[in-house]
């Protein structure tokens, strides 16, 4: 009897004594959320605030209110760019999302063969800087391109080239989200529908599509903002077609008009605000798809469906792989298009770029640090935002900050960092130009997609897990360590690889932040392309792509070896 | 308090800070707009002349380096500026960002390559010129242009690329050259006509010529040295100085005010004014600061010194903002798709 009383911790005098000094679980959660929010304020909000305050100043630093915005709205050039950006990004999104959805559907809901090959092929663009797709298109469809007759006289340089290159570049970003959204769904629904003889079309419209709705909305916003804020592709292939991102670049870089660059950047923030509200609405309607009793859907073979999806996926995959293969091939050509003999000369980067191969080792350091630190921050942050009940306002605030970077063009975020981290009043200015700032900036820049990936994965875990954990008197961190993180391990690794790869390929945010010792491989691509050394630019792009693919192969191997075992419980 | 805070944060992030500098070499951060392929030999030459220096280049196009230098004015990162357009250095001088220093041996240089206004802050190195690169293999029936006006022929429509004057020093010197040599009104009228034939404004002074050299475009208005070097690599191009003369700009060197490596920077500035240094400049440029050091590179077109117009660098610096604003008003608003 006395033993039974001692076993109940709630009434044990010793436990009661410790509790007086310890803080409660809720308080720990509160502190952690506050810490994540504080970090996000430091790495996202304050640089943006620096940018915002810059937009209200004249070039010489006086406060001028909204004067710059009035100037902006009354300059026809700038307004034309706004229109251009919106329709190009809209069209690119409209092209990418359906293709990516069918592709994701084929990967998750069919029994077509070679799925892993198709996944690898589709993710190819993520492994290369955005510029590389544009460089490849120039080799293919430029004025001296191999397939220039396909253009039927139209010029690649302009909206056609931008949309095509952006579609290639943003495709895997959409695919990642849609695959995550489609891969975890309750198979029991499908089985019930099948048992009742529901037609396939009806299953698609009533089960599949609504189930992936949240992913579709997220993916559409991700692609739209990715395209509207990318400056690498319009810079290489845009010709005289101006878009907002190139305007921001030109205002800042060419005209040295920092306030006007800041204004363009703030105009580009509008999609983020829109994304935030749409995201909130979608979340309200979203109910957990994967309840604690859910069973993953396992598609049955269907020759006709599988063959059609296989054909579609093969076409898309071929288009992607062929494009990037052309860029890799071009990097070995001695003097395009007049001397097609192959050479390694273009890989001697020191001939055309002062840092030579040094930028490559800087990129590796940056990518490693970003993957480790960024993934930890993102996943813990997403968990706290999604699964902790109290501190609603604080969580909403942290989520808003996490959503913000997607719509901030890297260039503008980078500029915000210059104004913030280089200000003489800021004690953090010792880091300006160091790898530290590059790491922080890269984590901030790619926060949103990683955050959405983490959220999408976490959302599919029923809140019942938390309820059960609480009723068992286990603190949330035990649940996080023993249940949530292991279940989401594939998503966590996806995030780490995403961070690594993007840190390898990022251009726009870091171009204003690199220091003399910390120039990155991707920045040297921009510089080589700008100087016209297209083959060397393609060569460095190929090196980056090969590295990132190597990391991805490791990722796949690790997933097969480790997670294959850890995730076995999902199957029946 | 702030020092303490800085030290604490610095320690916390120590893992990510770059390694300590080599024992007997001092890293000198040099901002430059020199061409990439020039940097390796320049670094070697500087480090031979000033053995205690370890040159770390930060290279970008003129507009970018100028923008970056101005953005950092409260907390300068560069020790020196070497090989940046003199008109940009004049802007820096006005903003009080340059150290007053007159390198030894400056008096031997050609007069135009010296800072002739007190305080003495910058020293010229070489002149770079605008030139026309014309691809003979893709010309079809079109004859090579002899004068600027030839570029206005309808046959060139959509086949000309030139550097964007806001980003590229070469772009700005072309525009400033037309405005100064033709007069403002005729200069803008010429550019109005040229704009109708332009396929794109690129962000580098080299790229237009490289694109012409590769047949991606027919005509590239570009930096003189790039024309010569692409031709040497085997490109089917002709490098032309139009008969009316071409705009030019000077590359110059200055020490940044507040640098922690003042003594070494001064030594490098001294080197810039030497005959040896100028012989190095002459490998890529036709016109250099040291009298008699000129030695035009292979395939460099003759007559560079005759083609150079009477150019006022002070005018270029003072009018930069106005000219770029006008340029942008005229040509960027028409940049939307042309039918």
Question: Quick recap of the structure?
Answer:
By secondary structure, chain A is mostly helical. Chain A has helices at 2-7, 13-21, 25-55, 67-73, 76-109, 115-123, 130-141, 159-183, 187-195, 200-211, 213-229, 232-237, 244-254, 258-268, 270-285, 303-330, 358-387, 392-403, 410-421, 435-445, 447-459, 464-471, 476-487, 489-505, 521-530, 534-566, and strands at residues 333-335, 339-342.
Explain what this protein looks like in three dimensions:
The complex is a heterodimer of chains A (572) and B (339). A two-stranded antiparallel ribbon of chain A has the order 1-2. Chain A has a single domain, classed as MetI-like fold (Orthogonal Bundle). In chain A, strand 1 (333-335) and strand 2 (339-342) form a beta hairpin. Chain A is globular and about 65 Å long. Chain A has helices spanning 2-7, 13-21, 25-55, 67-73, 76-109, 115-123, 130-141, 159-183, 187-195, 200-211, 213-229, 232-237, 244-254, 258-268, 270-285, 303-330, 358-387, 392-403, 410-421, 435-445, 447-459, 464-471, 476-487, 489-505, 521-530, 534-566; strands at residues 333-335, 339-342. In chain A, helix 7 (130-141) packs across helix 26 (534-566). Chain A starts with a helix and ends in a 6-residue tail after the last helix. The model of chain A is unreliable at 1-19 (pLDDT under 50). Chain A has 572 residues and is an all-alpha fold. With 339 residues, chain B is of the alpha/beta class. Chain B folds into two domains: 23-127 and 249-288, D-Maltodextrin-Binding Protein, domain 2; 129-248 and 303-332, D-Maltodextrin-Binding Protein, domain 2 (3-Layer(aba) Sandwich), CATH 3.40.190.10. Chain B contains twelve helices and ten strands. In chain B, strands 1, 2, 3, 4, 5, 6, 7, 8, 9 and 10 form a ten-stranded mixed beta sheet that branches. Chain B is globular and about 60 Å long. Mean pLDDT of chain B is 88; it is low at 14-22 and 334-339. Classes of the chains: A mainly alpha (572), B alpha/beta (339).
């Amino acid at each position: 009897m006395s033993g039974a009383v001692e076993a109940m911790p709630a009434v044990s005098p010793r436990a009661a004594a410790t509790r007086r000094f310890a803080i409660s679980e809720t308080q720990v959660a509160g502190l952690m959320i506050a810490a994540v929010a504080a970090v996000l304020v430091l790495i996202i909000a304050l640089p943006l605030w620096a940018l915002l305050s810059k937009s209200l100043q004249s070039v010489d630093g006086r406060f001028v209110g909204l004067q710059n915005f009035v100037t902006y709205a009354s300059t026809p050039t700038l307004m034309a760019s706004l229109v251009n950006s919106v329709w190009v990004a809209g069209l690119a999104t409209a092209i990418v999302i359906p293709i990516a959805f069918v592709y994701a559907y084929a990967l998750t809901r069919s029994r077509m063969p070679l799925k892993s090959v198709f996944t690898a092929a589709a993710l190819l663009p993520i492994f290369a800087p955005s510029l590389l797709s544009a460089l490849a298109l120039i080799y293919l469809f430029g004025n001296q391109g191999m397939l220039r007759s396909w253009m039927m006289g139209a010029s690649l340089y302009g909206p056609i080239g931008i949309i095509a290159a952006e579609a290639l570049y943003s495709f895997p970003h959409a695919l990642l989200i849609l695959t995550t959204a489609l891969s975890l769904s309750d198979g029991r629904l499908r089985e019930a529908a099948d048992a009742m003889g529901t037609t396939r079309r009806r299953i698609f419209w009533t089960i599949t599509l609504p189930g992936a709705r949240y992913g579709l909305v997220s993916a559409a916003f991700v692609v739209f903002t990715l395209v509207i804020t990318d400056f690498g592709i319009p810079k290489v292939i845009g010709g005289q077609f101006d878009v907002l991102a190139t305007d921001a670049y030109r205002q800042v870089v060419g005209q040295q008009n920092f306030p006007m660059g800041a204004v363009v950047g703030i105009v580009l923030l509008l999609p983020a605000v829109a994304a935030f509200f749409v995201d909130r609405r979608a979340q309200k309607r979203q109910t957990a798809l994967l309840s604690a009793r859910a069973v993953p859907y396992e598609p049955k073979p269907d020759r006709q469906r599988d063959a059609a999806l296989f054909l579609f996926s093969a076409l898309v995959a071929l288009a992607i792989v062929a494009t990037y293969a052309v860029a890799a091939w071009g990097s070995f050509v001695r003097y395009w298009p007049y001397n097609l003999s192959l050479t390694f000369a273009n890989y001697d980067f020191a001939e055309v770029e002062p840092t030579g191969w040094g930028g490559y080792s800087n990129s590796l350091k940056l990518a490693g640090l970003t993957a480790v630190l960024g993934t930890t921050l993102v996943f813990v942050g997403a968990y706290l935002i999604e699964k902790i009940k109290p501190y609603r306002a604080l969580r909403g605030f942290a989520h808003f900050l996490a959503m913000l970077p997607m719509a901030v063009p890297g260039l503008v975020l980078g500029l915000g960092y210059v104004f913030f981290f280089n200000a003489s009043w800021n004690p953090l200015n010792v880091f300006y130009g160091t790898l530290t700032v590059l790491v922080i900036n890269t984590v901030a820049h790619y926060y949103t997609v990683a955050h959405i990936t983490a959220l999408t994965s976490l959302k599919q875990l029923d809140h019942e897990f938390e309820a059960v954990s609480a009723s068992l008197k286990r603190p949330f961190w035990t649940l996080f360590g023993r249940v949530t993180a292991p279940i989401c391990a594939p998503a966590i690794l996806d995030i780490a690889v995403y961070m690594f790869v993007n840190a390898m390929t990022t251009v726009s945010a870091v171009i204003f932040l690199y220091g003399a010792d910390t120039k990155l491989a991707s920045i040297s691509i921009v510089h080589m392309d700008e100087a016209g050394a297209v083959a060397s630019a393609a060569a460095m792009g190929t090196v980056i792509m090969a590295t990132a693919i190597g990391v991805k192969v490791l990722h796949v191997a690790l997933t097969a070896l480790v997670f294959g075992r850890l995730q076995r419980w999902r199957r029946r | 308090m702030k020092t303490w805070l800085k030290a604490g944060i610095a320690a916390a992030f120590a893992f990510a800070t770059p390694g300590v500098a080599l024992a007997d070499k001092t890293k000198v951060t040099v901002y430059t707009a020199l061409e990439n392929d020039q940097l390796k030999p320049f670094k070697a030459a500087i480090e031979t002349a000033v053995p205690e220096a370890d040159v770390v280049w930060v290279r970008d196009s003129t507009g970018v380096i100028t923008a970056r230098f101005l953005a950092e004015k409260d907390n300068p990162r560069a020790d020196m500026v070497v090989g940046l357009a003199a008109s940009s250095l004049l802007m820096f001088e006005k903003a009080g960002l340059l150290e007053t220093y007159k390198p030894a041996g400056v008096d031997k240089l050609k007069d135009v390559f010296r800072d002739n206004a007190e305080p003495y802050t910058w020293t010229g190195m070489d002149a770079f010129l605008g030139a026309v690169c014309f691809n003979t293999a893709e010309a079809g029936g079109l004859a090579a242009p002899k004068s600027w006006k030839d570029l206005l022929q309808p046959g060139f429509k959509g086949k000309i690329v030139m550097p964007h004057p806001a980003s590229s020093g070469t772009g700005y010197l072309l525009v400033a050259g037309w405005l100064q040599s033709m007069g403002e009104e005729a200069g803008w009228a010429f550019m109005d006509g040229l704009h109708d034939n332009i396929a794109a404004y690129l962000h580098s002074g080299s790229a237009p010529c490289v694109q012409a050299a590769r047949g991606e475009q027919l005509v590239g208005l570009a930096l003189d040295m790039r024309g010569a070097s692409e031709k040497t690599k085997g490109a089917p191009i002709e490098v032309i100085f139009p008969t009316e003369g071409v705009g030019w700009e000077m590359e110059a060197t200055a020490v940044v005010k507040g640098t922690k490596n003042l003594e070494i920077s001064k030594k490098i500035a001294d080197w810039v004014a030497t005959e040896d240094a100028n012989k190095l400049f002459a490998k890529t440029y036709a016109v250099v600061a040291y009298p008699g050091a000129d030695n035009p590179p292979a395939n460099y077109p003759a007559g560079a010194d005759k083609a150079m117009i009477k150019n006022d660098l002070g005018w270029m610096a003072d009018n930069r903002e106005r000219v770029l604003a006008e340029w942008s008003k005229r040509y960027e608003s028409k940049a939307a798709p042309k039918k």
